[in-house]
Amino acid sequence: MTTATAEKSVNNGVNVEALFGAKEALANAPEAAKFRWRATVKWINGTHSRSTVEGFYGLGAEHKHKSQFSFDADHPEVFAAEDQAATPVEIVLAGLASCLTAGVAAVAQARKVQLRSVSATLEAGMDIRGILGVDSDVRNGFDGIKVTYKIDADASPDDIKAIVAQSQKRSAVYDIITNPTNVTVEVA
Amino acid sequence: MPMQTTVVVIGGGQAGLAMSWWLARHSLDHVVIERGEVAHSWRTQRWDSLTLLTPNWQSRLPGYEYKGEDPDGYRSMAQTIALIEDYAKYVSPPLRTRTTVTSVRRGDDAYQVVTDRGTWHSRAVVLATGAFNVPLIPKIAESVPGAVTQVTIDHYLNPDRLPAGGVLVVGASASGAQIADEIQRSGRPVTLAVGEHVRVPRVYRGRDIQWWMDAVGLNDERHDQVEDIMRARSLPSFQLAGYADRRSIDLNALTAVGVKLVGRLAGISDGKAQFSGSLRNVCELADLKMNRLLGTFDEWVASHGRDPEFEPPQRFAATRVEASPPLGLDFNRAGIRTILWATGFRPDYSWLDIPVLDHKGNIRHDGGVVAEAPGLYVLGLPFLRRRKSTLIDGVGDDARDLSAHLAAWLRAQHPPRTLAAAAQA
Known about the structure:
The complex is a heterodimer. By secondary structure, chain A is α+β, with helices and mostly antiparallel strands.
């Protein structure tokens, strides 16, 4: 059994050797580990806006994505808007979903588990009396997020659960959502 | 005039004494310098009800083992101090008590150990001052409202010394879990902020968890065998207590007596504590890891054909977490009068004037050998050479290895010049 595990080759398309190499290299170079992420946004009309991302800073230098990416956001017709794009809170869910799923692939690769399929559904509750200012005791944001994964992989149910749990432990977006972050908004 | 010796050992606890025992076997001239009396930290920085987390039989030290009538019991602090005192009598090291080291530096051809009772020059120095010198308190402690009393583990004695009212215990490893339990039982409602923790049962299939760790070889796992030694060295302690009834002190046991669980303490602002929304995941991780560990034990039993010797395999209930644990807490409105920081310790090297610390203040070493300062050694740190390195039971093997390394290094520096010296070496 042990030999079979050692010999099997697993490919989830994640270069974990590079990630482990970076982990080792950055352990004693905390400055190089500091990244800055950026986005810009332009109002279009109504609740419709377009955000773009292109450059970021890390490993002591400026970097650029291969191309500029843009994300439109709007609100649905039930909010009396034109529904030309996803609602910002849905983009938050998409960010969490993508971050956790990238983590599942990476952790599975590191643990030599071959993934065959990974999908998840996300649902977040929100009481809109918060954003409408009806009741100051109701918060604006989600009152909870439920993520349900369906994973077909070459591993026991507990090992799959452990991969998903480890992915949460190492996820940036999970951390951003579960912990407070100082936000400074200025008008230049 | 500085005093001369071959090796200065700093610290007169179990680590320094074990090292002295081994240095004597190598016929190496040395002194053991201790700021107080032997077992100083055990006397001054432990709460009243604390017991050792390892069973009595397991506190084996070089040349010394338990011969009492309660091998499965757990020593009280008084019994632990007595153990170290007895061991000190047995080793009878060249001890300099009530001597505080103020600086260790490298001279041209010797280390200089400056104390409040004179300076020693030596070929080698062993730092046996341990890993648990200064309580680690997160920076957010600065934002705790002034009306809330803050207590660190090294100053905590018992619940009755705390103000009446609610207590927020931060940290759910061995210390935090035990203290949360006794404070809750004293009638002060406890909220326990839970981050990453290591859940284990005290007893599994009729044997102590530490018996299993020994039997399957995990306690002896070496620093150069584990995949990620940095991670292994920073793991929190087992969530354990050494109670006479050998009960486990996991989060389910704590909620059963009324302790309220919240996520990791993530921030404090405007008199309110903010907790991470990750409580469910840290509990799930701990449950999964515990089950994997118990699975390792079961496989060991099966593969050795020893099933009849043990009670049948067992799995414990998953950690119970309420559907929506609170994410915030107003100290004033919730009646929280005390914060207890059970957030770990760090070593104190403020007197070490040799540049061998990393950016986090930890000493750079390979299994206790400080390569950047030949002749400098460190003992008694988490997973120094083995998983058991911080157990009383583990320091002896590390001291044996490091004393052998030290003796070989000294011989290489000064090859014996006479046949008699060669014979002695």
